Amino acid sequence: MKYNTGEKRLVLPEYGRNIQNMVDYCVTIQDREERKRCADTIINIMGNMFPHLRDVNDFKHILWDHLAIMSDFKLDIDYPYEIVKKEELDTRPPRLPYNNSRIRYRHYGKTLEHLIQKATAFEPGPEKDQLVRLLATQMKKSFLTWNKESVDDRKIFKDLEELSEGQIVLNEEECKLLDSREILARNNTANNNNNKKNKKGR
Predict the structure, then answer these.
(1) Do 170 and 132 form a contact (C-beta atoms < 8 A)?
(2) Distance between CA atoms of 22 and 189, rounded to whole angstroms?
(3) What gap in Å lies between CA 20 and CA 22, rounded to an integer?
(4) What integer is the mean pLDDT of 122-150?
(5) Which of 180, 142, 176, 146 is nearest to 159 (CA)?
């Protein structure tokens, strides 16, 4: 009896040993037309193994790429698509640069800092006032996400002034934010609703 441990390593294990054996046999067929018919049959079998992927873009193209890979690119046929090249399999994608920019207050996040900088460029008027109020409210919500206790509006206004480099100055008289307890209650309600949805989805 043969054991898999004694067989050669499968290039694409998801297709199994039998498909690999078919591919190996296909490579040895001398007649070019018969070899192509054999390859077409293998592609159909491979496709039937994963019917849920038929709606994936370029599904057939992917199968032909896999066939070429399993044959170690030795299958000499007229492919219906331009298949992947062997040397491309060993190339690594370029390294993504890591954003090392400093975040002054992590509980607010970098996006909120950018939005505050954008707000400073607005001309004075109702539109800017509304945007600043929304930003201050979001800052308070973000603060309470990390710190589950109440937060004084003066703390939010102080941070907003600092993040805007002194260009946005608010006080409690001209800007009243949502109460901390109201925000925390809304957050708890949202979390409970999400938990219920997750339980239903299981």
Answers:
(1) yes
(2) 57
(3) 5
(4) 85
(5) 142
What does the mean pLDDT of the chain come to? 84
| 38/25 Cα distance (integer angstroms) | 9
pTM over 0.70: no
- Check residue 69 and give its pLDDT: 94
State the first-to-last Cα distance of the chain, in angstroms, to the nearest integer.
Answer: 43
Contact 42, 26 (CB under 8 A): yes
Q: SS3 for 172?
A: coil
The first and second tokens of residue 145, run together, are 């996400």
Fill in the DSSP letter of residue 141: H
Q: Hey, how many other C-beta atoms are within 10 angstroms of the C-beta on 45?
A: 14
**Distance (Å, rounded) from C-alpha 199 to C-alpha 162?**
42
Separation between Cα atoms, residue 35 and residue 28, nearest integer Å: 8
Q: Domain map of the chain by residue range?
A: 7-90, 98-181
Of the candidates 124, 126, 137, 114, the residue with the CA atom closest to the CA atom of residue 183: 137
3-class SS shares of the chain: helix, strand, coil, % to 5? 60, 0, 40
Rounded Cα–Cα distance for residues 44 and 50 (Å)? 10
Alpha-carbon distance of 174 to 5, in angstroms, equals 76
* Residues 145 and 107: beta-carbon distance below 8 Å: yes
